[in-house]
Design the sequence.
């Protein structure tokens, strides 16, 4: 009983987070930056931050994760980190030779008042940034938002520091895929290509964090959005942003700066959200949906019809990042399941309202909290048990203590593999999710069935 | 120069090839800004050292990240309470950064102590706390008085040095407990085990050895430890210090304050484990029983595994290893243990070694071995390829680098779950090295297909 300390009685906690359902901004910024080709993320702060983020991303992706750090000392935190950062630019471009350095700040550098925009500009003016090389940056203090907003800020940094408008008429669409797995980014590209839509997607971690075994260690694996492409995003006919929390900021900046209109929709996780995604794409690009996609959708619906009785009224607890949780909750409702306890750690004003709306038809009381933690989720589950728990690896404590089937979904997943290779977006992704959910539910039925009703055919 | 690899100018003296003259290793310095260092921070150092204290409350005072990244990441086992495995954070937000976080800290401590009734509380200061100037000490004092338990501030602001300084901050925190307990009835033949964190149950194993030798273990710092035992640590006659980087400071302080002598040991490998036990036994020479029992113990334990080790040796002889670890002391034992298995160390480096450490490493290594301080993935991968290593021993960030290059990997850091200490640990280590170095997967990798009778190679696929 690892969580034996979790009491059933819920007291309001004001000053305290227990077993968080989020982490800090910089790691999200680092992940986003890894989605640019030949980019070295740079953490402007103490060495530990960079090390923790790299370790966590490494555990999640089982891939080398590279990033540099300003290595703050007591001196730099008194006199400011400008000289560290400028020295870092020089060292990085000389030794590691990336095309871009993507700087994100930390709580330390923000609080002492380092202005990375100004420092980067100074470096450029002083000729410290070689020709053809770029520095982009984002402000990501750890005491604001969460890893998701950190991702959003770095995406915004890409637009702010790189995007241009050339006034050449273009016919492509910008896609901001949201804080999703490399496998998801790959699937999103596949769908867009199947619809025959021209596009630029950024960031794009596919290929970088789910690359093949090559026998070589490469600091900048093949893959990622290229600088040349991100520069062109100011010329696009529009931007399709997936997931409000992670992607809307950059989409809006493209709109205000370059008059590129944007559409912000939910992540295409599950049936209805994927429908919306495909429909939106179809409308923007003025194409029709190809048979291959229609067929995939049909297969998904076929699986649901075949197995719908097993989903009926199953209670589910979900925790994770807002964009994922919103889309997934919608899918669970589509499946006739009952998501009743829903938590995100990320502060998000609209989250609770949105979930309430999605779960209107659920015939039970639904608990929902933004800025919550898994301790609270566990307490809810103790008071009203569920048939399935969905969340990142840290859910395994609750699953074990309460003996609940557990589906790993979200970030981080540090005790299983698969998330980098099998998408959860699109119809294919939904099928994958379904199969996993069913497997968990039916394995439980088999486990608990008394001998006489243990069935071969389910 | 060893190769044409670009090395940061500032780092040139942190890379050395055994056999070259002069030996003038630069170490113990801050990492250069912009380097992809594998190092961590002060907070990280404190957190890993104190983490295994299982009946204490560990509250991270800072934004959420620092608590999130250190939530249950160590394989340090507890035989009882599991309070240390939860993640508690004051989750500082903008408001507190501007107006101060003392009030929130006070509230959080109160809530937690009421809920969990811990035996003591450690409050870790993170970067931001050092900048906004919260008086953590004052809050701790107030709560300690109100709740009548020790509330100990750990001064672990990330930027105030390296991981090593974090070890020292942790030791300083522990020193506030040592000396507070009743030491009546503690035997003269008694020790504290320092720098042993009970990864995969290692401390249990080693405590068992000492028990069999007739030596009383007063406290283990900090593997599976309890506040009560730490308070009594000054009752021991000897401090036996492993992983010298983290606990040497505590040992020295305890020598100053309580007159307790210390010795440095390693429990890794047959040679070092035996030496550790014999060294302790010889200190208690008045009690002749101890040495006798130690000899019997060592013989028994070695016999249990010796034959198996010869099997591994037969297969591993001639294989080449690269080592990159946190503290250099670990590397010494690893080199010896690998040698025992017939393996050659072709690269060795550490994050935090000092002059003395690197001299020892130089003397231990054969000509041609690359020695590195505070290295980065580019250097490591370059030399691993050049030196044709078959195995990489390191921590979490190095594992995928090894695998990408198509060579075996062994985790010798705190993330592993198998005990590698003691005699049984040597067996586990050999087994792990064998399983990874000899894995058939490497023959499907493009790196060195010539090593195998490879069908892909024959078909010209690789």
Sequence:
């Amino acid at each position: 009983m690892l969580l034996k300390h979790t009491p059933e009685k819920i007291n309001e906690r004001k000053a305290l987070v227990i077993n968080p359902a989020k982490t800090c901004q910089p790691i999200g910024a680092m992940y986003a930056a890894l989605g640019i080709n030949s980019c070295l993320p740079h953490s402007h702060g103490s060495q530990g931050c960079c090390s923790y983020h790299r370790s966590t991303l490494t555990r999640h992706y089982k891939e080398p994760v590279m990033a540099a750090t300003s290595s703050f000392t007591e001196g730099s935190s008194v006199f400011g980190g400008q000289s560290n950062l400028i020295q870092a630019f020089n060292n990085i471009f000389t030794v590691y030779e990336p095309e871009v350095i993507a700087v994100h700040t930390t709580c330390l550098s923000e609080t002492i008042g380092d202005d990375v925009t100004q420092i980067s500009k100074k470096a450029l003016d002083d000729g410290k940034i070689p020709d053809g090389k770029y520095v982009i940056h984002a402000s990501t203090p750890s005491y604001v938002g969460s890893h998701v907003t950190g991702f959003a800020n770095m995406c915004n940094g890409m637009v702010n520091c790189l995007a241009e408008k050339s006034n050449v008429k273009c016919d492509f669409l910008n896609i901001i895929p949201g804080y999703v797995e490399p496998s998801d980014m790959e699937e999103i590209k596949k769908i867009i290509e199947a619809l025959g839509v021209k596009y630029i997607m950024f960031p794009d971690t596919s290929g970088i964090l789910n690359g093949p075994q090559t026998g070589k260690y490469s600091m900048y694996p093949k893959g990622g959005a290229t600088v040349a492409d991100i520069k062109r995003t100011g010329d696009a006919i529009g931007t399709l942003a997936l997931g409000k929390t992670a992607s809307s900021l950059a989409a809006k900046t493209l709109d205000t700066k370059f008059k590129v209109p944007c559409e912000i929709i939910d992540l295409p996780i599950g049936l209805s959200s994927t429908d919306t995604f495909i429909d939106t794409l179809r409308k923007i690009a003025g194409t029709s949906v190809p048979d291959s996609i229609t067929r995939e959708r049909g297969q998904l619906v076929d699986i649901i019809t075949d197995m719908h009785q097993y989903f009926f009224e199953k209670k589910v607890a979900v925790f994770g990042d807002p964009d994922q949780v919103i889309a997934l909750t919608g899918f669970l409702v589509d499946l006739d399941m009952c998501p009743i306890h829903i938590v995100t750690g990320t502060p998000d004003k609209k989250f609770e309202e949105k979930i309430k709306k999605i779960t209107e038809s659920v015939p039970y009381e639904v608990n929902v909290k933004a800025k919550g933690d898994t301790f609270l989720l566990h307490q809810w589950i103790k008071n009203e048990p569920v048939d399935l728990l969905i969340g990142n690896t840290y859910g395994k404590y609750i699953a074990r203590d309460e003996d609940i089937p557990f589906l790993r979904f979200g970030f981080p997943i540090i005790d299983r593999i698969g998330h980098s290779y099998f998408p959860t977006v699109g119809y294919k992704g939904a099928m994958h999710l379904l199969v996993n959910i069913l497997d968990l539910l039916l394995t439980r039925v088999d486990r608990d069935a008394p001998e006489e009703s243990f069935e071969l055919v389910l | 120069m060893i190769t044409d690899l670009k090395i940061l100018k500032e780092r040139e003296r942190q890379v050395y090839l055994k056999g070259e003259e002069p030996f003038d290793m630069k170490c113990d310095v801050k990492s250069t800004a912009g380097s992809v260092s594998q190092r961590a921070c002060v907070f990280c150092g404190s957190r890993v050292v104190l983490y295994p204290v299982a009946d204490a409350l560990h509250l991270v005072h800072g934004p959420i990240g620092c608590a999130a990244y250190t939530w249950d990441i160590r394989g340090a086992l507890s035989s009882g309470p599991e309070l240390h495995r939860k993640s508690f954070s004051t989750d500082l937000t903008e408001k507190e950064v501007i107006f101060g976080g003392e009030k929130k800290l006070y509230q959080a401590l109160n809530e937690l102590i009421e809920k969990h009734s811990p035996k003591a509380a450690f409050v870790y200061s993170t970067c931001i706390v050092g900048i906004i100037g919260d008086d953590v000490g004052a809050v701790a004092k107030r709560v300690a008085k109100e709740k009548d338990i020790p509330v100990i501030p750990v001064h672990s602001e990330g930027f105030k040095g390296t991981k090593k300084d974090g070890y020292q901050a942790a030791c300083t925190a522990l020193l506030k407990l040592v000396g507070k307990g009743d030491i009546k009835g503690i035997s003269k033949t008694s020790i504290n085990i320092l720098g042993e964190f009970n990864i995969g149950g290692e401390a249990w194993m080693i405590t068992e050895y000492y028990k069999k030798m007739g030596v009383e273990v007063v406290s283990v710092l900090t593997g599976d430890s309890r506040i009560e035992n730490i308070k009594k640590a000054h009752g021991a006659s000897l401090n036996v210090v492993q992983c010298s980087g983290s606990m040497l400071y505590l040992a020295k302080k305890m020598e100053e304050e309580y007159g307790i002598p210390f010795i440095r040991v390693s429990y890794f490998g047959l040679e070092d484990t035996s030496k550790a036990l014999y060294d302790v036994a010889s200190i208690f020479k008045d009690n002749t029983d101890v040495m006798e029992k130690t000899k019997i113990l060592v013989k028994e334990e070695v016999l249990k595994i010796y034959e198996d080790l010869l099997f591994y040796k037969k297969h591993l002889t001639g294989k080449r290893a690269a080592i990159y670890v946190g503290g250099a002391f670990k590397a010494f034992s690893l080199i010896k243990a690998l040698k025992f298995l017939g393996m050659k160390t072709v690269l060795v480096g550490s994050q935090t070694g000092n002059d003395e450490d690197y001299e020892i490493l130089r003397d231990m290594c054969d000509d041609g071995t690359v020695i590195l301080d505070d290295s980065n993935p580019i250097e490591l991968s370059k030399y691993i390829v050049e030196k044709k290593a078959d195995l990489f021993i390191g921590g979490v960030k190095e594992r995928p680098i090894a695998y990408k290059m198509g060579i075996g990997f062994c985790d010798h850091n705190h993330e592993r779950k198998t005990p590698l200490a003691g005699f049984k640990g040597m067996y586990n280590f050999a087994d792990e090295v064998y399983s990874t170095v000899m894995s058939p997967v490497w023959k499907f990798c493009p790196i060195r297909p010539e090593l195998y009778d490879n069908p892909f190679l024959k078909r010209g696929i690789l």
Q: What stands out?
A: Chain A touches chain B through 81 residues (CB under 8 Å). The radius of gyration of chain A is 23 Å. Residues 80 and 114 of chain A are 6 Å apart (CA to CA).
